[in-house]
UniProtKB/TrEMBL annotation:
One of its GO terms (cellular component) is Dsl1/NZR complex. This is RINT1-like protein MAG2L. Coiled coil: none annotated. It comes from Noccaea caerulescens. One of its GO terms (biological process) is regulation of ER to Golgi vesicle-mediated transport.
Amino acid sequence: ERAQLFPGKPLPMEHPLPLSFVLPNPTDLPGLALGFLDGNFEDLQDLLDRASNLTSHLKHDSSHLNDRLLHLRTDLTKHAVSWITTSLAAKVSLDNLRLNLESLLSLSESGTDALGKQTNRELHQLVEELCRIQNTRRYFMTALKLESLVGDLEDSVFHPMSNRKGSMLQDLACKQKRSNHAIKTMNEIEEVLGDVTRNHSQWRRLVDSVDSRVDKSLSILRPQIIADHRAFLSSLGWPPKLATSKVDHGEVASIPNPLLLMQEDQKESYSQSFLLLCGLQKLNTMKEKRKKKLNMPKENDSVGFWATDELVIPVASRMEHHFMKWSDQPEFIFELVYKVTRDFADGIDDILQPLIDRARLVSCSAKEAWVSAMVQMLSCFLEKKVFPGLVETFKKDKHMKPEVVSSWFRLVDQMVTFDKRMQSFVDSDTFLGSSVAFSQGMSVMGLFCKKPEWLKTWGKIELKDAYRKLKEDIKNEKAWLVVSERTRLGDESNSRSAKFVLSTREDYKAPFVADSFLSRTWRLIDHGLSLPSILPRIQFVRATATKFLWYVFKILLLEFSKTDLSDDSSFEDTLLQACGPINAARFLESKLREWCDDVVLVEMWASETSVQVDRKPEVSSCHGCFFGEELKGLVELETNWLMEIITACLHQFDNLCSDHFHDNVVSWEEEEAVTDCSDITVSRGVAQALDSLRRHLCVLQLHMNPKDFLDLWRNLAQGLDHYFSCKFFSGVVLRKRFKVDAEALLTVFQPYCVRPAAFFPRVREILRL
């Protein structure tokens, strides 16, 4: 106004206005601009000093973004031109279709075959062209969508963040927001790629190109998320100290859990970080499933739950120091792992399970994931630090020094005990017992499933140790001694059926060594059942327990071969000695059948039958149970031994009667001359033979198990029935004397059945006639 009033006169110099008049009012600025200024300038002086630098940076970023926008516009223009070209081609094709249809209508009256064929050919070509256009359109639309999503992902991942100077939680929240957006974008990309994989498998190059760009972004994003998560856990004081000085009532107090001490803002930050890890793992699972459908090379599966793995990794690094000090005392290692797992399980379940539910992870338990991660941590330590040394020592020392065997057994026993404690701990909070579902990931014995060569080494050690201990048991003077209540009481019972209700070694009158056979066999089977996978179980039991059983059968065979049944002078002592291996074999047979009825061995037999593990097809799992082949061999041994005893008894009976039958050969006419008034008694030779037979049966009844004795006397009766009938029809015995001898024979078998004549059908028929 002054210049207009006084034209031509210079204006006087005015003082510069203060900054409070130049800068806008902060209340008028939007929140984003105000936050930007607060994040880059601390005070007014900082504004004056750094404004120019910030301006240059902003200009540079703006120029870069303008260049990128120009590039995108250029690409969009190219795609639009391409699409217009395609649309024009489609329009021309549709016009041609219209003209062809008009021509078809105009010539439809002629109806010639040539015209019909030409029309069909042109229609077929038209359909193919339309399908090609439609597929091209879908391809371009999918490619544009993927390009947009991948570009958004790369902007989110590669764009540098401004240097904020806020608190750690504020910085973490900003990073989490950016990472969350990137994960959502990758999920959308994965959904599109999944649809392409299912419906357009020929677009392999498009999928490979997108996968390559997404993997680059993921290779940057995943380490950042994990690093931020670990830094946040470290700020919370995780991992805690593993030692505590508090002792309550003689017991060490539980270790405090830092996760339970988080404040509300810390809980929210941890929740977001946890959900990011869950999102990454879920995305990784989706990618692996899609690659499996495409038959692409599959990456190694991640074992466990990533969020709990991140809790275990720092705990493992702190535990390893103690593990190395306790390499010769494995019980301390297992006890420490169990204590830490138990003390933190409830707190981790309270914190993580709601987050798992929030992430909508199906069939995932925080407590089981924590236990599994701790078990896998211990397995990795044993695999890398403990077992290699033991295996190397075993290879160098083939003679199995006691200290080597002791180290193996001590470690394996601790592993088995640890698995049982962990299984009990997991089952304590579940409504349905997870004994069947106690998988390889939650069992430290699963280490042998991953290392078949270590499983074979362990089997060799167990088998050789069982051989050595069994040899010591056999050397005992009382090994084959039979002492049972049934023997002392003469097998008396109020009920006849009670004789055959057998369950214990005393019931079967088996020697003491039979208990050793069974206990050492079951120990090998029980160690095999401690393995979490069924196929390694079968391999271990076949390599140890099955071989050990055949070794036991050999020992029984050698023991029975010591008996000389041809020696008539000490025949009763020989029978007593023969009862030992027979009773032991029958006792083993009953226990093997009882074990085979167990549901675990039934499952193993079914699995072995289907896959034929380490056995020939014609031999594997025959006779309907797991130890079918072994039972068949054992029954054959028992049968052969009983037949040898029966043969020896019949041979001795024949020796005692042969002179009598030879000296009393008469004709039918001479027999008629025998006076009826004379009393006919049992001949001396037959009486002597029957008395010897009665004594032998008493010895066998007293010292042989009831089941085998039942088979023995019935088969012996069958043999004597055949023997007496042959002597009668050969004419070497008087008919009237035969009746007396036969009645005496039936009297010998009277204590063992109600109607002895039922077991002598030939003699009974002769007497009837």
